[in-house]
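Weekly structure sync, notes
Attendees: PL (lead), two postdocs, one rotation student
Agenda item 3: pending single-chain targets
PL asked that the sequence for the first pending target be pasted directly into the notes so everyone works from the same version. It is reproduced below exactly as submitted, 1131 residues in total.
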Amino acid sequence: MESTIVVHWLKQLTEPDTEKVKQATKQLQSLSLTNDFLLQLFHILRSEQNEQIRILASVLLRRKLSKSSTTISKDIHETLKHLLLEQIQIETNQRIRKSLFELIGTIAKQDLQHEINEKIKKKLKKQHKIEITGWKEYLHLCGTLVQSTDLKQLELGMYLFATLATYCGRFVLEHWPHTFNLISTMLKTRPSIIVCEQALIILTNLVKVLQQKQYVQTIVDLIPIANETIQYLFVNLKAENTTNLLDFYEALLDCEVPNVIGTHLQSIISTCLQVALRDDNTILESVRYNALSILAEICRQKKKTLLKHQTILPPIIQALLQIISSANIDTNNISDDGNDDDNDEPVVVAGANHVLEAMSYHLSPEKFVPLVISQIEPLLKSNVANERKAAYYVLSGIIDGCCDYINNNYLEPFMTALKIGLQDVNSDVSSAALLALGETCAVLEGEISKYSVEILPILMELMVKSENMQNHNLKVIRIYYAVEELIGVLNDEHKNSIHDVLRVLFHVHSSTTNTKVRELVLAVYPAIAIVMKDKFAPYLDTVITQLSPNLSQKPNTETLPVFCTSLNTLASLCRAVGTDHCKTILLQALEFSLNLYSEIDEPEFRSAIFALGGAASRVLKNEFNTTHISKIMGYIFESLRSLDWIEDAAATENRKLEWVDEEEIDSTSHIEVKADEEEEEEGDNDDDELADEGMTIENAHVEEKAAAIEALGDIVENCIVAVWSYLKDIIEHIKNMLEFPNLQCSQNAVTAAGNLLISIHKMTTQTQITNEKQLVQDESDRLLTDLIPNLCTIINTSTSRSLAQIALDTIKNILEEVKLDMLKHITLLEKIAHCVQKVLAYKTKCQQENDDENDENAGGDSREQDGRDDAEYDAMLISTGGDLLPILTSIACTGKVQFFPGYLSSIIPKLQKRLRHQASVSDRSFVIGVLAETVQNMNETLITPYLQSLFTMFYQYLLDEDEEVRTNACFGMGVLCIVANQQLLGQYETILNRLSQVLIKETNLRMIDNICSCLCRMIVVSPKHVPLEQVLPVLFQHLPIREDFAEANSIFTCLNLLYEHYFTQIEPYLPKSIEMAALLIDDERVLPNAIPVIREFLRSIYTKHSVAFIQVMQTLNEPLRISITKHLQIN
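Predicted structure, written out during the meeting:
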């Protein structure tokens, strides 16, 4: 075959004519089946004058070698190897040299794998030790060249050695002593920039495959000189050639073997900071971002080291402030895509924010936040606008991960600073303050509401400014974001201001001509509706009037965003306000949008429809039209099956050489070509399909999938009967999405799995038909067996704490629904229990830290800690895990599950260990609260081993300075007395003295309610051991309960007992008792299980002391008399 024929068809591939490309593809496919095709390609690569054709030939040659190596004859294979080694020594074109190195690496890897496979077979037969030699000629050439005194020869040898390390890293690592000497010598002597680069590449690739501790120390010894070399190369290389210099640090952080970084963490941080701070043309923004990404990863992995050596943190924070203050963030403009987010900020600012977030998520707030505040305070008062701006960016970056600590320790100065920033004369500073305010309100609640009195007027003034009504920019986006989030934290005392906000929103919507600003207005309404609920109804007509024009005609490209926003707004309004107020427009919008589904191929549109469908299922439930459900389910399944989220990166790059491969060049490979041929065959990652095929995630399509699985979760929760026929598909898609490589999708899938299990179990109690009930029960049992292990796997293996937390919450919801039916699945119950145990022991994947400070203790026992250095997200996961303990205890105790006593013996001490000296308020509240609820569900036998330690704990914390901790301790003491029965009678005097001591100065109503309930529980256990003459006057002085209505049951259980057996003592208090019962029996805050107890109390008095009862009744108002009469008539 003449090489000119191949050249002809290769040239035709570069032409813009699609038909010619198809023809050339077909011809090349045919030619690829001939024996000498590979040699012809190599001949073209070596001798053709046209550089594009040479590159194309090299691409096809490498793809053919990669995908069809087993079909290539040994002679051709050996010939190619010989020719490649010849050509690499004489080639001068740098792009072709790169292609040749890739070809050599591909063959070297294949030869090595083939040799290993063959020798493994022989070993199995003869038990000989395997010795791998590799491509001998290649290795010999490398060895010769790296010893050459000729610089060009040496550089070529280092290139070849680096190629070998990239493709055959483990093989090179087996010859570590020689390799170490080579790398060390080259990094120390620095014969040339190229030699240094290649030596660093060799070292980086060897660290990537490092799995044995025997090489760790020598690599650690190389880190200082490698670090110096990286700094040297940053100075001497052109900016475009520095993109991979920091890969060495990434490899160290990703290394499977611990202690690789050793004591050199601070020098690595220093280099990264130097790179990130270089704001000039000598370095690319992407490289600065990469340096910041490495710093963020260090914060995730090395938190103990950072906290132990606190001199490391201040320079990082200072550098981040400097980066942000020096960046040009134009908040008065927005990118052409018009997205309503902060993606318009410079990439280095985004990188700095990632570092801040990583620090706030992974470092102890007690140690981290004061450091940040100390550096921010001077900047907030600075005369330089950029410094003030940087301070607010930092505040917005740390609030999510440290919200509890800031709320408890810095709320007043924090909110004062934000208020000042909102009014800053510099637009960029006020924009940064708006962002910080929005982020703060998104994560805080409670006392922050009171600051709305001063802040909301400022925001409303900003909304009505003419420039903010007519322009859509980053600052305007942040104004509405801040309003939306601040509305969400308003408590009842401050909700009246919402009416003024609505008037401003209505004014802006009617006054502006900017569609984007109207879109922002519409997006605020759902937050208001969620807070106001039914009270939003009077404003609904106005909002619907604003929405209707957007939903009455098919959107075009320009109007599609506002159409989608209107659908999302309507969906949220329906969830918040309910069916009666918006049913008509909901059905109209649903019908209209579903009919447009096949006409508008945009993921944002599909996401909005899914949101509306999910909302419709919530408000319509059984009234949901089956035709609409059928359509929505079909679209959801279609979206979840779609591969549109995978984008072929090669197809979207700017290329001089493009061609469409309708058919494959050979029967086993799909050819993709890039002009610059910048793909790299990762040495040991060929199994990674996404990397191998150049796949990336398209955000809009991923968001569509997240919306689809969320809607599916809503529908199975509210319309399970209507979608029963889809059950098999529903389960399949939920399970698939549990493993989807996107956090929001996985989180929504976990929630959907929980909704499905709970809905199906509810059906077992709702159907009265025996056959149907058994069918549903069988399905419920099967799903428990199928899905619970998946959720447990997520908890144990997910790297995301938030995903593990949602999985724990979901399991808790399932257990609270299924309850004793779990006793049919003891294995599952034990699996859940051990998940909780692993969480509390810091042994799940997302709790692991690759920190040298942890590695001194084998097995990671140092992570079984007291929570002292926990980040807030760590504490949240521990708290969520602990919250499962009460329901687990309830089920296990009822069923007398065998594994549970031993299980508790490890869990209770582990929780008590967190009550260390100076434990945080949140830790104290969590441990006392969880153990109190757990005790409530225990029995007398189970409580005995822990009785003394629990008594001491509750007794001690009755005096805690925090009211929530005191309340939890008081509740715990009460339930401990009940469960322990007679075992604590000897401590009653001690308990009563402590309660009396507390009550004298207690002002918190919830705590007072719990003191009352604790006294009542003690009386129920043994009235003889409670001095009723002294206790009852105090008890009734503080009744009725005013805040903790869950305690109504214990109080009226006690009153029933006293009425039946100690009438003389209770008689003076009967009028107040009857009045109290009348006030509580129909109060929706009282738990359902208390109602029969209160009713029994009233009925007993009415039956036995009717005269006194009627006298009291006559003193009550008419609604209370009617309520009591109604309950007396209930059988």
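Discussion points:
- The chain has a mean pLDDT of 86.
- Residues 452-550 form one domain.
Action: rotation student to compare against the earlier draft before next sync.
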